[in-house]
Amino acid sequence: MCGICGMMRLGDAPPFTDADQPQLDRMTDTLTHRGPNDRGTYLTDRVALGSRRLSVIDLSSAGRQPMGNERGTVQIALNGEIYNFRTLKQRYDLEGRGHVFRSRTDTEVLVHLYEEIGLDMLPQLNGMFGMALWDAERQTLHLIRDPFGVKPLFYHRDAGVLRFGSEIKAILADARVPRRPSLQALHDYLTFDYVPGAQTAFEDIFEVPPGHCMSVSADGQMRLLRFWDLRYETDDSIDENTAVARARELMDQAVDRQLIADVPVGVLLSGGMDSSAITALMARRRAEPVHTYSVGFEDGSFNELPYARMVAQAFGTIAREVVVTPQLVRSMLPKYLTFIDEPYADGSAIPTYFVCQLARDEVVVVLSGEGGDEAFTGYETHAAYKVARFGRMIPRWLRRGVLAPVVGALPVSHKKLSLEFKLKRFLGGLDLPPVEAHLWWRIVLTEQQKRRIYSRGVQDRLAELQEPQRHFHEVAQRAPECNGLNRLLHIDNAVFLPDDLMVKNDRMSMAHSLEARVPMCDPDLAQFMATVPPHVKLPGLRKKHVMRRAMEGILPPAILRKKKVGLEMPYSRWLKHELRDLVDTYLARDRVEATGLFAPAGTAALVDEHMTGRFDHGRALWGLLNYMMWHDLYIA
């Protein structure tokens, strides 16, 4: 696990010299938190590579990066882990073919595997990775990102230089890179509370998409190749018993595969199904007790600590936990955004920061449950999709004239996934096409609400901007044969998982030099579940049915029965009380107006509606607060 960065000279731009070494050093050292154990750089007239290493496999200095082949014609800087590197080393008989290994690392296997089969190696890699591979003979740089976007990789290009890094801060370490907020990214961010797609919050800084290789030649030509994507080709021969047996086998295999390490490994145990299953499967493979780390809240509707304790007791784990309070959250604002470099308002980020801080006292690697909901149908919107067919049978006049006013009159609740929230979302999306209805469950601010808070200058440019739902439609269009529930799952895997969940998973763990692995994103497991018929994955409204059955007799019955809660903070209530002063500070009229992006009257109305209880704008206000804090840190 590392942080990587670098530069490539394009076309006839002046060659790199020793005078560029300080710039490479500055870029590299912005990533020290990602790799505190070692440091390495590589500089030629055409390309510069930097690496900060977190030692996980082969702790010796032989694992130093960037790493090259015997002739020095191939150089790799790798961030992440390749879990099947030993299998690939044997499959292609790399030692038998004369390759000399100086380490036991996955990085060195990649070097020699590329020599043998080139980029054909990419679909065979099982792991999480962002890598830069320099082919000196072809004068080509390959920037490569894993299928689920577990590991990040950003880039910026101007007339003469391509810059890249595991985090945006490595690119910004070059003072020649301008810091301008992207209006399109803002428009999308206010819809999702995160920046979706290959764009970033900065103009002209982008991210290599998951499952892609971006190849850059010396003349500046850039070619983007997709090397992996989930294929939702339903296999009707898979019945429930087959799905359950195979899913159990593949989950067990994924956990075993991701336990590979020369350092201690623990589990981030939320008390939900995914992390509980991982804990159980890991405990069955380890003679010594598993170390688990859990986070909770004082608000019972957000707190899953009782379930985490139940699992810890069932498997005899060495359990530690932290309770996140408004005071702890205040201590991290706006600091935590310096690890993300973008506005980001997922309410699980700060709790994840604190539980990772707890874990780093004892372990270097943790397993985490991201990806389980996307593979096994775990979200409310998946069930809503099925119920909507029956909801539309109710005459529209009755829905709009009677049900909608009654539901709209329900008092605002700040409980997690309250009935009031679910009914309003369900009715609001009932007349929408499936993809738009799926988006409706995730929308933070509607297009009308955004116009209300935009400045006049932004409103005048709205015609230039694309609609945020394009991110969902792009996924749907690239697999037109994928319909129904599978289309929604494909969207979740391609948008929500990499652009939201993996941001939190990577940045908050790496803030503490902690490697977070995600067994539920194992490609073999995810691809198998993509072939399971939808009626097997979601019989009736029983979400995660296949996983629940697969873990019968292993997990406590109460865990198998529990409803999904999900990790999030009760910020709707906190923003009214304990953190009210932050709203008053960051959304003050002069501060809002100074950005040139927002209308003070519009943001003030949003605040007033929330504080008086007319609407729950907690997510929207948390999103605006985070944008304003980011703007102060990186733009203003």
How many strands in all?
Answer: 17
**What do we call the CATH homologous superfamily of the largest domain?**
Aminohydrolase, N-terminal nucleophile (Ntn) domain
Helix content: 40-55%
Shape: globular
CATH class of the largest domain: Alpha Beta
Q: Please give the order of strands in the largest beta sheet.
A: 2-3-1-9-8-10
What is CATH's topology name of the largest domain?
A: Glutamine Phosphoribosylpyrophosphate, subunit 1, domain 1
List the total number of helices.
Answer: 28
Proportion in β-strands: 5-15%
**Which assembly state applies to the chains in this document?**
single chain
Please indicate the count of domains.
Answer: 3
Largest sheet: 6 strands, antiparallel
Question: Compute the gyration radius: what is it?
Answer: 24 Å
Q: Can you name the CATH architecture of the largest domain?
A: 4-Layer Sandwich
Structural class: alpha+beta
Low-pLDDT segments, ≥5 res:
none
Estimate the mean pLDDT confidence: 92
The N- to C-terminal Cα distance equals 33 Å
